Queue: 2 jobs
Job 1
Amino acid sequence: MKAKVLLSLILLCGGLAAPQARADDAAPATPAVPPACELPSYLLTSESQLPKVAEAVKSGKPLEILVIGSRSTTIPASEDASYPARMQAILKDKLPPSEAVHVSVEIQSKKTAEEAATTFVKLMEAKRPTLVIWQTGTVDAIRAIDPDDFRGAVTEGVAALQNAGADVVLMNLQYSPRTETMISVPPYLDNMRVVAQEHDIPLFDRFAIMRQWNDQGQFDLFSPSRGPELAKQVHDCLGRALAQFVFDAAHLGPAQQQN
Amino acid sequence: MTIADQVTGSTIAGTAKPAEPRAAAITLPAIGERELRLDLFRGLALWLIFIDHLPTSLLTWFTIRNYGFSDATEIFIFISGYTAAFVYCRAMLEGGVVIATARILRRVWQIYVAHVFLFTIFLAEISYVATRFENPLYTEEMGIMDFLKQPDVTIVQALLLRFRPVNMDVLPLYIVLMLALPVILWSMRWKPDVTLGLSVVLYAVTWEYDLYFSAYPNGFWAFNPLAWQLLFVFGAWCALGGARRMSRILASPVTMWISIAYIVAAFYVTLTWYLPQLSHLMPKRLEQWMYPIDKTDLDVLRFTHFLALAALTVRFLPRDWPGLKSQWLRPLILCGQHSLEIFCLGVFLAFAGHFILAEVSGGAAMHALISLSGILIMWGVAWVISWYKRVADKSGAKTKNAVGNADLAGGG
């Protein structure tokens, strides 16, 4: 019952927020987050921390971020609108101008977590990032890889990234309502959560975030549209959410900004 | 854990004490005595499975998986084991092992055909989506359509039960369990408690050595029959006298309080999944021990959660509760009485519901409408089947004796 009441409340709030959202569109961009991207704060917070990112910003070293992902990390033919690029722009805004932020992307197309993890040692030697955001799980879910094997592969991958001296954020699958009857997602979400817990690293819950947007009506993820507009908007919001998430997990509060 | 101890404890007690001194190893309730509670809860499980197969909505919050570890699948498999054992053991006693086995195989064939039928519908749906849906946000997820490129392999694998799309896992599990039923029953007639013990051993061995059924293109069956057989065999064991021998334990207040405590604890844990704000109240040690709660291999936590629910149900819902005959529960009971047909219908309706939500509109009102009409359709079809069977039985009774009760023989 509690859960139901809560859900009704959320829906109600969503209903109230939606008309406001449209009214605000015209207003000058004082609030940092566009209404379409709004999320409850629990989806953007993590108990785990990013000490190396905090350290780098504190000492004024450049912040090198590496996003390792699969095809859902990009939008075909619109790289600049994909979430890594958006995150870089937002982080630059949020951090003091003196802080250099650079985001690079490594796409491991059609590779399972296990296949991707084999490349990590070399990749880390070449890039030396402060923070790695590893987005994985989709290919494993499509190929129905054994969830235990998947967990093992993610564990090894995270360990390799950490050994190379980087902070790690895990990012899980997209919420994709059209393929819900075809791809079994829950085991992969669960196992990524377990690995994140075991290693005490932040998990960016892309699945829950996108589902929140769809349920609230901020985005219609059922849309069959072939144009890139929806993808661009969703990636913009994901980039913002991710920047906020990293910012909070590294405790880069307003105090840091003034330094 | 505690509940499992209770139950295994009871089996040991059952073997040790000569409760029924004469060799009557198994006992069946008198003929014609229909256990409406089974129909009721199987009907409920079918409705819940249907709702769980639809995208999340307000109604989803009424399904039991949100309030504890186990879900409708446990209810369905347990009751299927119960009814199947009940019906076919009688057939075995009356007609012999060969006849009973033949009847079971005929049932397996029906379930297999139903599965292939559902697969065809799935194929139609996925082909449609593959050609119509090209949102650039989801280019990666569309990789699932790759199997359409080699139908020669995929369709053959589907016929071999190795390629099973999402939401089509229950029937293959059921087929395997029913295939094993002749052996289970044969062994149950010999020594029920030993059979249950062997089932527990198989379950433990499956966990220890990580045994599984492989699937195509890779991976394994989403419901591992080697683990889920425990619930099925336990159902059969209960049907063949085990439930009666356990009645003392079931009636004890200790069992009741343990069950309640366990269900409340499970509810609290589930709550932390939906209200992550609460999760910091969960001890990390406990989380690490507990997660992941594995559905594929029927995690002990799920099994015990089901046992706790069952214990409370049996206690607070007596067999002769007058409400079972009320008009209000009639739709559920009717659906439970034709479970194979209604199960398949439910899977189909879930596909259709997805389709409508995707193609027409995804609003909450539409969602509620689809869930509601789905349930009404299930009820309506169950009613028609009942009506047809009644009419057919009436005209058939003149020429031949009814061989067993066809409704009960449903067994799932």
Job 2
Amino acid sequence: MRLTADNLGGERGGEPVFDGVSFALAAGDSLVITGQNGSGKSTLLRVVAGLLPVAAGTVRLNDGGEDFPDVASACHYLGHQNAMKPALTVAENLDFRRDFLGHPLMTTEAALDAVGLDSVGALPFGYLSTGQRRRIALAGLLVSFRPVWLLDEPSAGLDLASERRLTALMQGHLAEGGMLIAATHLPLGLDDAKALVMPGGGSG
Amino acid sequence: MLALYIRDVKLGIRAGGGALVGVLFFLAVIAVAPFAIGPDANLLARIGPAMLWIGALLASLLGLDRLFQVDREDGSLDLLILGSSRHMLPLTVFVKCLAHWTASVLPLVVAAPVLGLLMNMSPLATFATALTLLAGTPAIVFIGAAGAAVAVSLPRGGLLVSVLVLPLVIPVLIFGVSASYAASTQPDPFLPPFLMLCALMLFFAVIGPLAAAVALKGASD
């Protein structure tokens, strides 16, 4: 499986944010995107996921097989919001994710265990702290299989121990042949990651 | 898809879901009508079906603007759009509409016969109105979904959704009310307007989710 972007350009509300971004990821590769605020890190992730239209260039997934014919079908997208419902319990949120996304991978208990929050399954998501919410969102990546993880500031709000756990989760995903693109300001502990520095920035 | 339906119904009936707001609004409209119109029992019975329909129409428009906005605010809308390679987006919208109807609009249909008592309606007219509401309100939700999707990124899009949708639901209102009247006033046939109402509902069930899916795709940012 191979994810390639060729001269990719993105825009927000008609204003070009970046252009000429190219990268190629094979199974087990990761890409860490850094850059100033407003340089288009999040926009790039959303363009790759297909949530924003491609302004220029192409992004393709090759050899995804029947299960993953295009990029969007192969992606987990973790944005700034956690995509969880505050009124539902943590377990209900994760169960929904697994049922809706298909390709079940881990049980809810196992996923909660993997982020070190095995006791909060019955609590409403809205009762959790910022860091705990982020960890549950990370558990959401584990309940259903997707070869490509798009992570926007995945470590925002996490404590040191959770950051280490996140690194381990990401390394595990890569070891199993997954791919990963993360936009971040903080080092994520991925030693072999390719680096992409977004040029420019909104405020200079 | 079933998972999405169950999730949305749960969200609708849990605290903060706002399913009861519609019923309370409906109750408020119908309860004050006799005071405003006066104690003429015959007049009340005559305008009863129309009042019930107007009340139910406005009450079901009430929560519609939040249909996709809540999902957008907490990021779940990205999840639904990303999932569209497995589940067609119009189908996802359709299921969301069904869930919204079950949680927020079905209670209105159930409450309608009780509120019919306040309007001095005969049992037959009450029953017919409830039946037309059952057939007609899904059409309001389906076409309302298209309006809600257009206004999804506007923070106070509630009124805009109502204004966008209102012209399209007028036919539903016309056929719904005329079928309700026809049940109690003898020479008018009940079936033709009722079947027109069902046809409108089926028509909007196709057009609404398709339009909403296109709007959601275009509005993602």
